[in-house]
Amino acid sequence: MRVIIEPTYEKLSQWAADYVVNKINAANPTPEKPFVLGLPTGSSPIGMYKALVAACKEGRVSFKNVVTFNMDEYVGLPEEHPESYHSFMATNLFNHIDCPKENVHILNGNAEDLEAECANYEKMIAEAGGIDLFIGGIGPDGHIAFNEPGSSLSGRTRIKTLTTDTRVANSRFFGGNPDNVPATALTVGPGTVMAAKEVLILCNGHNKARALQAAIEGPVTQMWTISVLQMHEHGIIVCDEAACESITHGTYKYFKDIEKDNL
Ligand code: GLP
Predict the structure, then answer these.
(1) Which residue's CA lies nearest to atom 10 of ligand 1?
(2) 13-56 tens-digit pLDDT
(3) What are the catalytic residues?
């Protein structure tokens, strides 16, 4: 695992955006062989999305031959609801870049048959040739996408019930009331993320310090689903100083040291 420690959230976001831009450009994608990108929602990726929008506007990258798959979506929230992940992605990224509509995939939390929706999502990922780079965030309890503590680490796209912790954490987007946060969501599984060729996790802020510690130093456990990243051949976490408060000084120094020439 690579752990990139940046001084601030802004620097973390720029690092992540530059990484994505370089990957897309290096792949030189075409309509026949697009670059397949897995994308997250939440507050963590907002800075990276801003930097990606800027890069696209400046002509440093194009998303014309990029195919995207989002991680998750609430069940039963209308797509046009301002807090749906459909709205989030339109507002923060897709309305501002040149990615064709037909290349964008987001789970439909209002599908009549939710299980069929999930199975079809996995099928579409496979048909696209698998995900080249899956970007994610982490919840304060170490969840990745909506794979709450106790989720099968090999699970695939399916319906999950959100924990009280997550509903409380996300209530800031729903007028402060956890009861307004949908109780269930469709989400890719840890197995879906792990099948990507590369995984890049964004982790910022003091409230993520315990999750970062579990991700890097703890055992692989279903109680911190992000810990599964330890089993990935090409896993990267980019974090800020504030998120590093719970890792040991030795761990901190080691990752700083091995990454110092890679800036
Ligand atoms: C939600 C999302 C996750 C995200 C997490 C953290 O639960 N389903 O994908 O990683 O929130 O969100 P934030 O980045 O706002 O801390």
Answers:
(1) 137
(2) 999 999 999 999 999 999 999 999 999 999 999 999 999 999 99
(3) 72, 141, 143, 148
CA of 28 to the centre of ligand 1 (A): 30
- DSSP H helices, the chain, are 9-27, 46-57, 85-92, 114-127, 164-170, 190-194, 209-216, 249-259
CA-closest residue to ligand 1 atom 6: 139
pTM: 0.96
CB 96 within 8 A of CB 62: no
Q: In the chain, which residues have pLDDT < 70?
A: 263
CA angle 128-148-151, nearest 5°? 75
So where are the chain's domains? 2-259
Residue 202 pairs with which residues in a beta bridge? 238
Give residue ranges with CB within 6 A of ligand 1: 40-44, 71-72, 137-139, 145-146, 166, 170
The architecture CATH gives domain 2-259:
3-Layer(aba) Sandwich (3.40)
